[in-house]
Amino acid sequence: MEILTIDGQELAATEIVGANLEEILLTLLEHPSTSGRVITGVLLNGQPYSEEVPHAALEVDRSSISSLSLDTRTLEDMGLNFLKVGPRYLETLLEALPKIVETFRLGDDHEANEHFLNFLEALQLLMSMLEQTRHVLNLWQGGDGENSSELSVYLDSLVEVLNTLISLQEQKDWIFLADVLEYELADSLKNLARILPLLSQGGH
User: Fold this and answer.
1) Strands 67-74 and 37-44, how do they pair?
2) pLDDT at position 203
3) Contacts by 197-201, CB closer than 8 A, 24 or more apart
4) Which of 68, 99, 123, 179 counts the highest number of beta carbons within 10 A?
5) Range(s) for CATH 1.20.120 in the chain?
6) Beta partners for 9?
7) Shortest CA distance to 93 belongs to which of 113, 111, 120, 112?
8) How far apart are the C-alpha atoms of 166 and 130, rounded to whole Å?
9) Residues 131-150 pLDDT 10s
10) pLDDT at 76
C-alpha cells in the first residue's frame, strides 16, 4: 500500500497492519486518530467502497490496495446529524402508514403483512438510531435538559406501541392492529418529529 489517510492526514507505513482490507480497517479503528469516532466513508484506490455482503473486505487483498482514504466523524456529530435528518425519516414512515392501515382493513392479510414487516424493520432501525443518539446526547449534555427528558419519554412510549403491534400481529388481530398503527403509532412518530429539531437546536 502506498498511501493511507484518515481525515486527510497521512499515516506512516508502519501504522498500517493487516493482510486484507477488513484486517486493516479493524486495526485502524483502534488507532488514536479514530478514538471516539465512526468511519463514515472509505475510498479504495480512489473509488468509494462499501460492502455489499458481510465481510466482503476479507477478499480485498492488501497487495491490491494502492491507496486507502477514510473519513470519520465524532459520535456527537453523528448524533447531531441524525437529529437533523431524523424528522425526514419519520415523515417517510408516517407517509407509509395509511396504505398499510387500509390494506389491513380491506382484509388483504398477505399484502398488508408484507408491507408491515418492511415498515417494522425501518421502525426498529429508527429506534436503534434514536437510542444511540440519546446515549450520545446524555454524554454531551450531561444528561439534563427538558427536551432530553422528553425524548426519553417518547422513546419509552414508542417501545410500548411496538410491543403492542407485535403482540397483535401474533394474535392476527388485524383490525385492532390497524387502529394502533393509525392512532397510537402515528401520534408517537409525530411527537418524535417535533422534539428532534428542538434537541438539535439545543446542541449549538
Assistant:
1) antiparallel
2) 46
3) 197/83, 197/84, 197/87, 198/147, 199/83, 199/137, 199/147, 199/148, 199/151, 200/80, 200/83, 200/84
4) 68
5) 77-202
6) 6
7) 120
8) 20
9) 887 777 664 444 445 666 67
10) 81
pLDDT for 47-103, tens place per residue?
999 888 888 999 999 999 999 999 998 888 888 888 888 889 999 999 999 999 999
| CATH 1.20.120 assigned to 77-202 | yes
φ and ψ of 176, to 5 deg: -65, -40
54: number of Cβ within 10 Å = 7
Could you tell me the three cell numbers for 93?
A: 414512515
C-alpha cell at 9: 492526514
| Phi, psi torsion values for 195, nearest 5 degrees | -80, -30
Please give, one letter per residue, the 3-state secondary structure of the chain: CCEEEECCEECCHHHCCCCEHHHHHHHHCCCHHHCCEEEEEEEECCEECCCCCCCHHHHCEHHHCCEEEEEEEEHHHHHHHHHHHHHHHHHHHHHHHHHHHHHHHCCCHHHHHHHHHHHHHHHHHHHHHHHHHHHHHHHHHCCCCHHHHHHHHHHHHHHHHHHHHHHHHHHCCHHHHHHHHHHHHHHHHHHHHHHHHHHHHHCC
Q: Measure the CA–CA gap between 107 and 174, rounded to whole angstroms.
A: 8
Residue 142 grid cell: 450531561
Report the relative pairing of strands 3-6 and 67-74 from DSSP bridges.
parallel
The answer to whether 5 touches 70, Cβ cutoff 8 Å, is: yes
